[in-house]
């Protein structure tokens, strides 16, 4: 007799599901014989087949799966039992892929394949792409795998026919389109950079208000910015830049609502921080445009942010190349993982010591020791000291405050010896952890990029992959794929014949 407390897995809310999950075929047969509903769903919408996918004993789960399906042959008018989705829209086949259950996935894939012909060792196999291909399916297996956080699910990408489908899509359409997109983006960024370099400036007419004031050019007003032919040429580039920023927002925002904010910005496979970078870049472009139209001074602030973010986003396109893609993942993990955590610690240290340095030099002549003459410059100078970009500011021709020597000594020990070595240790640990899965993550990124391009491009530019099942008598709605093993089948046949002859001799 089974104890409910001792069952280490979910067995649903129905007695039939419980009997199937514990592997009792006799009880399952008895329950079905007395009218048990094999299509019953629990509160999560899971049928008995969904629950079998989740069982830890995968071998007996596959056997029980076939046993349950054998009772569904007489009820096809209600729809196939294995095509009933749960509350999350997942059929048992999709659930096996999302959970990374490779045994059940391969078992179900074997049930879905069609043997076209056999000739000795030669076998022509057709695999049904229903629920796998992302073409025309808003919740395909490919998209589910790249949006899940489970590492086990990524192993499905190495199985037949998923790996053949991904390779076909990427090599035939994905890589060429992605390279073209990268080229257009680089040209777009060059156009934006030229517009910033030659932005409208004029000589300053007003007198200096302070001896440290070094400004000689100021921003032109809107009516002064577009007068000469050179200004008209720059206007064309600025219009291209603004239109490009609007297109970026139009393409990005729908995906945020479709995938979800957490997954879209938080997962490395989907691009994660690069989406934040490109959306922020587009917003900075629009802010710069508003400031230009209203003749508001200070457009250099959003313009500078946009330049840095726009060029940093070029790293996103490295995922299209096998040589650079895995290392981009490494950089992504370090910058947006270790470095972000380290910045919090660094900010606390810099704020504390910058305040101390400013107070110490508050009574001193800034012409002799000008690194801390006001608070913003004190923060920046302390940041440079933290990264050892500059040496400790000191003018030995004048008397230094006594507390400066003590404070700077403590700062040198904490910043240089402790904090920077802590950052190096954190990045070294991340490198060791990510090195074991970076190639796997890169392959998943290729799948995510392929699905993204397929969603955004017109279907006329991305024909459906595979072969229509009508050619093989499988129906108009079925699309199949015939994997290639990369070897000459007739060579295999000749080797097989030689082995048979040698064994007979």
UniProtKB/TrEMBL annotation:
PANTHER family: TRANSIENT RECEPTOR POTENTIAL CATION CHANNEL SUBFAMILY V MEMBER 6, TRANSIENT RECEPTOR POTENTIAL ION CHANNEL PROTEIN. This is Ion transport domain-containing protein. It is a multi-pass membrane protein. PROSITE patterns: ANK_REP_REGION, ANK_REPEAT. InterPro entries: Ankyrin_rpt, Ankyrin_rpt-contain_sf, Ion_trans_dom, TRPV, TRPV5/TRPV6. It comes from Gopherus evgoodei (Goodes thornscrub tortoise). Residues 202-436 form the Ion transport domain. GO terms for cellular component: plasma membrane. Keywords: ANK repeat, Calcium, Calcium channel, Calcium transport, Calmodulin-binding, Cell membrane, Ion channel, Ion transport, Membrane, Metal-binding, Phosphoprotein, Repeat, Transmembrane, Transmembrane helix, Transport.
């Amino acid at each position: 007799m089974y104890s409910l407390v001792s069952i280490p897995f979910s067995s649903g809310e129905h007695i039939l599901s419980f009997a199937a999950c514990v592997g009792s075929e006799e009880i399952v047969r008895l329950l079905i014989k007395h009218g048990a509903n094999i299509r019953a769903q629990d509160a999560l919408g899971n049928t008995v087949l969904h629950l079998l996918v989740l069982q830890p004993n995968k071998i007996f789960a596959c056997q029980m799966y076939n046993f349950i399906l054998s009772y569904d042959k007489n009820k096809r008018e209600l729809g196939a039992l294995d095509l009933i989705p749960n509350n999350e829209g997942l059929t048992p086949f999709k659930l096996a892929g999302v959970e990374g259950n490779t045994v059940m996935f391969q078992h179900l894939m074997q049930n879905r394949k069609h043997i076209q012909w056999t000739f000795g060792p030669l076998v022509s196999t057709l695999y049904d792409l229903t629920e796998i291909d992302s073409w025309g399916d808003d919740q395909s297996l490919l998209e589910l795998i790249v949006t899940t956080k489970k590492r086990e699910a990524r192993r499905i990408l190495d199985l037949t026919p998923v790996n053949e489908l991904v390779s076909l899509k990427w090599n035939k359409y994905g890589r060429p389109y992605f390279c073209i997109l990268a080229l257009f983006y680089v040209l777009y960024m060059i156009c934006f950079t030229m517009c910033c370099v030659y932005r409208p400036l004029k000589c300053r007419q007003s007198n200096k208000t302070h001896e440290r004031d070094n400004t000689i050019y100021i921003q032109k007003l809107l009516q002064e910015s577009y007068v000469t032919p050179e200004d008209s040429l720059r206007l064309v580039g600025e219009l291209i830049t603004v239109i490009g920023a609007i297109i970026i927002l139009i393409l990005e925002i729908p995906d945020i609502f479709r995938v979800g904010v957490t997954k879209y910005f938080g997962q490395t496979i989907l691009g994660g921080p690069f989406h934040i970078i490109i959306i922020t870049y587009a917003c900075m472009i629009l802010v710069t445009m508003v400031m230009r139209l209203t003749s508001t001074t200070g457009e250099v602030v959003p313009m500078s942010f946009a330049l840095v973010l726009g060029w940093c986003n070029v790293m996103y396109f490295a995922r299209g190349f096998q040589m650079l893609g895995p290392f981009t993942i490494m950089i992504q993990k370090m910058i947006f993982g270790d470095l972000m955590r380290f910045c919090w610690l660094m900010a606390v240290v810099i704020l504390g010591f910058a305040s101390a340095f400013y107070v110490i030099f508050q009574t001193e002549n800034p012409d002799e020791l000008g690194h801390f003459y006001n608070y913003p410059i004190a923060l920046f100078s302390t940041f440079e000291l933290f990264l050892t970009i500059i040496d400790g500011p000191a003018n030995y021709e004048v008397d230094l405050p006594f507390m400066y020597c003590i404070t700077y000594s403590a700062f040198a020990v904490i910043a240089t010896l402790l904090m920077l070595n802590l950052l190096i240790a954190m990045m070294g640990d991340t490198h060791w952890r990510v090195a074991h899965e970076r190639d796997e993550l890169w392959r998943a990124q290729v799948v995510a990029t392929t699905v993204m391009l397929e969603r955004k491009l017109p279907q006329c530019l991305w024909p459906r992959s595979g072969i229509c099942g009508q050619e093989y008598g499988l129906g108009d709605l079925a699309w199949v794929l015939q994997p290639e093993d990369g070897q000459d089948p007739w060579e295999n046949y000749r080797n097989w014949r030689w082995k048979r002859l040698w064994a007979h001799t």
